[in-house]
Structures
1.
Amino acid sequence: MIYSRIIGTGSYLPEKIVTNADLEKIVDTNDEWIQSRSGIKERRIAADDQFTCDLAEQASLKAIEAAGIKSSDLDLIIVATTTPDQVFPSTACLLQQRLGIAGPPAFDVQAVCAGFLFAIDVADKFIKTGSARCALVVGAETFSRIIDWTDRTTCVLFGDGAGAVVLRAADEPGIYSTHLHSDGKYKDLLCVPVGVSRNFKQVNSGSAFTTMEGGEVFRWAVTAMSDIVDETLDANRMSRDDIDWLIPHQANIRIINAVGKRAKIPPEKVIVTVERHGNTSAASVPLALDEAVRDGRIKPGQNVLIEGFGGGFTWGSALVKM
Ligand SMILES: CC(C)(COP(=O)(O)OP(=O)(O)OC[C@H]1O[C@@H](n2cnc3c(N)ncnc32)[C@H](O)[C@@H]1OP(=O)(O)O)[C@@H](O)C(=O)NCCC(=O)NCCS
């Protein structure tokens, strides 16, 4: 049996910090409201000339360095993003060129804030079936580009960033299991209602923005991300005590706390970055993972349950031995 194992992590945040006080100057909001409703204190926003691939490249270089491999060792590149640089080629192809690699498959997956879990699932299957031996999996977003900065109900919640992992084939887990779900009937609750094939003029004029039914999304996110903890543990015949760390999608501290409570994972086992990153969509989980690996909380051999939830709805998890 072939397994895939995370052998390196990396992340990148744009330099520009936007605090809640900065947002008070552009919309009718305040630090107290934002912190009490979301836990967010600040977020990073990409510079005008910085695009998703730029963020992905920085995160990837760090993951490749941490893995102790060369870019040329990679035989698969998957980028999870909802904010690609171009309609096409994929951000993964742009990243491949930056990394100086030619030949191996490179493609994007789009599952919004659950995208990294979908990408990990695909890469894991490539490795398990012998189609790849060393994969780069990236979650990268410039979500600020699809936010209406005059809409206080959404603009306070999101940020930009990228996280990456290198997966390599191994004789032992590694990734124990992955679990993915989608339910398109909730498509209108969290979306950008225009795209390339539909009202492209709005995309072109830079007014393709995220809309959201916050309360509904909140309820669904809590249910989906706590239920999938049980699904993941059951599939591996493991108990909560076998989990060293939970890394939920970083959308809102109240969602994270409610997931921990409902899933019966104590707060000291839950990695939280949302207060400094905001919701970075597909980048949120690999960013949090890299941070906790680099600051020494996550140690080799520990079991980490990562999970995501996003528009679609889409949701997924992976149980990983580091
Ligand atoms: C958006 C969210 C933070 C709102 O929190 P909430 O507790 O439901 O908010 P409340 O219902 O208590 O408050 C809403 C009120 O605050 C106001 N409000 C909204 N945004 C505000 C802001 N940035 N500053 C001040 N007031 C704001 C609303 O206009 C509304 O006012 P009204 O009652 O006069 O109409 C919460 O629903 C949420 O996080 N949802 C999930 C969002 C998410 O994570 N999406 C991505 C998932 S991948």
2.
Amino acid sequence: MENHFKKTFFQGLVGQKCPHCRNANLFEYSGFNLMNFSTMHKSCTHCGQDFVIEPGFYTGAMYFSYAFNVAILLVVGLGANILFDLHVYTLTALVIGVSLVTMPFNFRYSRVLMLYFFSGIEYKNK
Ligand SMILES: [Zn+2]
């Protein structure tokens, strides 16, 4: 059963919930389900909010994804370079590896951020 207590903006965002009701999940499967982590509901299973805002709406999510990957490059790449004496190929492989492992996380939160900040959907608890 879905719970109906009010969630904050932040709880809804982190929990990958519908931005309109913050009750139902945006994604059909867990982020650890590697075959299906990207599958989204077309509309909210709780309030019916449409998640397909307009054709190509989620194209903008790649800017968030890009930002996540730049952050990984800076934190992991520079961090490992400062802490350990690694060859540039090893550093590159490390950054690519971390980027691949965190891909489901990046993909999902890029879309969540897109929905929460650029969809114009307003929160209404029913
Ligand atoms: Zn909803």
